[in-house]
Amino acid sequence: MPWMTMDRMRTEVAIVGAGPAGLLLSHLLAQDGIDSVVVETRSREYVESRIRAGILESSSVELLDSVGLGKRLHDDGDHHRGIYLQWPGERHHLDFVDLVGRGVWVYGQTEVQKDLGRARDAGGQRIVYEVADTAVRDVTDRPHVTFTVDGRPERLDAEVVVGCDGSFGPSRGAVPETVAGTWTRTYPYSWLGVLADVAPSTDELIYAWHPDGFALHSMRSATVSRLYLQVPNETDLAEWPDERIWAELAVRIGPERVPGPITEKSVLPMRSYVMAPMRHGRLFLAGDAAHIVPPTGAKGLNLAISDVALLAPALTALLRENDPRLADAYSDTALRRVWRCTHFSWWMTTMLHRGGAGPDADFEAQLQQSQLRWVVSSQAGATGLAENYAGLPIGY
Ligand code: DHB
Question: Are residues 329 and 199 in the same domain?
């Protein structure tokens, strides 16, 4: 093999991952005058077309507004006052604005990603896409990230490394097992998610409990619906031709939808995962790198946003004033909200999905229906769901 010199770069904060957590962090740091470089294994086109849940809590929107990222969200996004919860024969609206004084915004994560990409372009952010062999090294001493670009080795030295590289990225592995605790939960079902060029048949999202399994009617725009069906784990998409999907949606949610072209179809596994602490030495973790929630309730993006909203001022104080207090508190502070959302996502998931067959599942189904009735009919029940769904303040 020919001998190659390693290119070296230096920055204050090396960010691994150019998803919403990584790009928003680079944006917040730039506003404080902190230099960062972002490295990403995927291409920009890939990260900008990844389909994810599209619900933003009020505090996420306030944060994006406060740093100049809210314009298109307000122009093109949709403010929702609440959601519908339904089970066979009944549909109830929960009005979060009446219950807790705030609603949510429906605005696809792909759109947030594009807005962030444009803002970072305007800010002259250094982002290296399509890197390979990324490794996070020496985080307790001289933190740096090594990677290759087109087969050429590179090294990025930094004061601090932040892992925003999701659950399969290399950052998580740089925290030794002797240091980290992990908590995990798998679920005996998945979601079949589809995007369809069909006008939503509802003004706000419908979460549907049904004996055949959960279904969700969400949306991306006035002409695009996002729909989900509970399916068994390891489901083969070949078993779900479009006609079967529309028929099952009609059974589980109701017959109002007019079938139309399905433009994307995938099976999404469901998992809860938390790793703590979210820091080791001069490596910090944010977003999916430290925690995964099942999609019900759409908390993943909001948690990524709240993590970096805490982390940016902590790193600024550390690097500019040599004040470690916020950085030292970051993991504990972030984890309070992480566990709240982990509980809420688990609670929504287990309240709405069929757990299998047999007497235990039948017993569970009765409990679920009783719980749903309580949530929609009791002020306390409805307020609890609304407070968590519309989101707690950053720093909760
Ligand atoms: C969406 C996904 C969710 O998990 C959810 O709870 C609400 C909406 C979505 O993709 O639009």
Answer: no
Ligand 1, atom nearest to 108 Cα: 11
- Nearest-CA residue for ligand 1 atom 7 is 298
Residues 194 and 255 in one domain: yes
Selection from 233, 231, 234, 232 nearest residue 194 by Cα:
231
Q: Tell how far the Cα of 297 is from the centroid of ligand 1, in angstroms.
A: 6
Write the residue with the smallest CA distance to atom 1 of ligand 1.
Answer: 53
Mutation pick for ligand 1 pocket among 85, 192, 205 (CB with most ligand atoms within 8 Å):
205
Q: In terms of domains, do 16 and 121 share one? A: yes
Q: How far is the CA of 8 from the centre of ligand 1 (A)?
A: 41
Residue 243 belongs to a domain: yes
Alpha-carbon distances, residue 146 vs 41, 98, 225, 288 (angstroms): 12, 51, 41, 21
Residues 323, 346 within the same domain: yes
Domain with residue 373: its CATH number is: 3.30.9.10
Question: Is there a domain that residue 83 lies in?
Answer: no
CB 7 within 8 A of CB 148: no
Task: Return the residue matching tokens 């990844």.
Answer: 50
Ligand 1 contacts (CB < 6 A) are: 53-55, 205, 218, 226, 295-298
Which positions of the chain have pLDDT values less than 70? Answer: 1-5, 395
pLDDT digits (tens, 9 = 90+) for 170-229: 999 999 999 999 999 999 999 999 999 999 999 999 999 999 999 999 999 999 999 999
Within a domain: residue 330? Answer: yes
Residue nearest to atom 9 of ligand 1 (CA): 53
Task: Check residue 161 and give its pLDDT.
Answer: 98
**229 CA distance to ligand 1 middle (Å):** 12
Residue 356, pLDDT score: 82
The whole-angstrom distance between residue 314's C-alpha and the CA centroid of its chain comes to: 22
